[in-house]
Amino acid sequence: MSPTASLAIDDRLSELFDELSELTGQRNAIDGRIVEIVAEMDRDELWAAAGARSVAGLVAWKAGVSPSPAETIAAVAHRLEELPRCVTGLQDGRLSLDQVGVIAQRAAEGSDEHYATLAASATVTQLRTALKLAPKPRPEPSTDADSDPEPDPGPQPSVTTTTDEQYTSWHIRLPQVEAAAFDAALQSHRDALIADWRCDAEKLGGAGDQRPPMPTVADAFLRLVHAGWDAEAAERPHGHRTTVVVHVDVTDRVGSLHLGPLLSDADRQYLTCDATCEVWFDRDGRTLGAGRSTRTVNRRLRRALEHRDRTCLVPGCGATRGLHAHHLKHWEDGGLTELVNLALVCPYHHRAHHRGLITIRGPADQLMVTDHAGRPMTSASLARPPTQPPPDVAPCSGPTGERAQWWWYEPFDPHRPPSVN
Description:
41% of the residues lie in helices and 12% in strands. By secondary structure, the chain is an alpha+beta fold. The protein has four domains: 7-133, no CATH class; 158-234, no CATH class; 238-289, no CATH class; 299-371, no CATH class. The longest helix is centred in the first third of the chain and has 41 residues, at 3-43. Residues 132-164, 377-400 are annotated as: Disordered.
């Protein structure tokens, strides 16, 4: 190559690098503003009012991005006040969203200054390595030095529960051997759920942002309960199965769980809509019967419903597993169990509808989904041509990216006292 041609290539690369540096700084600053907006939605829980399942779900839906960058934005937004230097670097255009996202997702509390300084020269891969080198949190030492240690009785299994207005939390403590068997059972059921999840993802093709959420350990636990509890139901007293029993007073429209607490109006409507439960109607303290036998969708109708709807019909969701057949005109209000009065919705949006966060109106061929303020919900993102000039920030050339000499690197340790200059 002649010197003249080489010089022309260098000049062209310099021009392109200059433009890339300027656009990268502007993009980083725009991402910083997006993080601020999402942080406000996270702080005030506005994502739930919009009908989304989570902050990351709202970002993926409204920004038209895939789940991975949406989770990164949500992670930075959640720690906005905890990482002021890193976020300022993002807003000034000096740091990228991926750099700050790695820190927000993995860094220990109090490490903002350490990683903000490191990110000025480290690539995303180098930041991940640095975070892996950080020591794990150490347990706090006991302050009760005068108490005599009691003899260790050995590992003892225990199960404790705590209940609030919406949830019941289970804390299960098992010895190592029993815990290993429990872990193996959970992993087996989660593997089966993930296999189904991948099949659904392949059917959706390239629509990555519409894929159902990855099955969690909680999903595997519920699958374990449903698979094992009913296996020997015939041998149990009265043939008990994993069926929720609800009592509803037809006069006062008051519902309660069998031998349990009263239900809110939203939970009563949710359970009597299509959840797999047994509903008994009472009047003046006397049981009348189990109501209309057509409340629950039969197999034939369910198949027709799945063929028509395929996924949760709430825009921006796309879940395909564990869907409920929702009565558009509530069953307790006289709605019929027919195809025109049914729609598939995921459990989250089913509850959200009965709690008033979203509204689903029918019939099925004229379905309308609105948020709590009555705004129609659509699956389209909010992206549109910009009307404002790009942020006025300094160009960003990116991290220096020199080879990391890890033997000289001192990882962040929250227990180390700060150095004094």
